[in-house]
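Readers of this paper often ask what the protein records in our data store actually look like. Such a record has a labelled line for the sequence and another for the backbone structure tokens. The tokens are whole numbers drawn from a learned vocabulary of local backbone shapes. We quote a single record here, exactly as it is kept in our systems:
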Amino acid sequence: MDPKKKIWNRWITFLHKQEERSKLREELLLREIRSSVSDYDKVGRLSITELHVLQEVGEKDRVNVTTIAQQIGVTKSAISKITVKLMKKGLLERYQLEDNQKEVFFRLTSVGEMVNEIHERYHQQLENDMYRFLDRYTPAEMAFLEDVIREATEE
């Protein structure tokens, strides 16, 4: 078989497996959140984007809609809608500085911190798994792989 065709077939298989794994990991993460948050019914189902908004707010001080949108690559309009949902779910709260009543910032509630911590542990486990997977490759192979992934993800 043509080498390009072999790579294409492997790539399609890889994408399908990643999609399946992603769905499974997402379900496991949401199950852990559900079992850890006592008032989960109020929180309800969380999207991955909502989790990433919580992560962004949890990592920085004085986070506003513009900052979040720039960091996670979503429109400000979408972030505005997501932050409203997260406030209704009791995961985020908004605040303003005394000397600047115009700008609105966000911070995590205690439940939001708990959800974010679970999400952070999840990401750490994924990172550790990837490092273990990459241990089988030489530095030269990893450099080549990094080049391929960079070129494949450039816009």
